[in-house]
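Tokens as discussed.
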């Protein structure tokens, strides 16, 4: 958490948005519980609001975008591009809903 607190100070973060990994039918999974626990730990460690935002289909959408850009699935996974693109999609979705 020390590194996270340093980044928060350096980047002047005032809110943290985490992907909420729900099942396709909207129910919670084991990973959902882990993320919710982590969100609570982040709140306690940083004194910042931490919001969970539905991340369903963000990886699929990221793969579609990267595939259209000509990158093979193997290349996308090797470089972690899918995760980075999915995070951008998640944040854009959150920002669109909270203008």
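Sequence:
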């Amino acid at each position: 958490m020390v590194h996270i607190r340093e980044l928060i100070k350096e980047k002047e973060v005032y809110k943290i948005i985490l992907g909420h990994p729900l099942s396709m039918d909207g129910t919670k999974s084991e990973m959902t519980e882990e993320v919710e626990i982590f969100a609570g730990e982040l709140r306690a460690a940083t004194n910042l609001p931490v919001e969970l935002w539905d991340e369903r289909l963000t990886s699929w959408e990221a793969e579609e975008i990267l595939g259209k850009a000509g990158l093979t699935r193997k290349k996308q996974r090797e470089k972690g591009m899918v995760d980075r693109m999915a995070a951008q999609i998640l944040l854009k979705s959150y920002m669109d809903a909270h203008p």
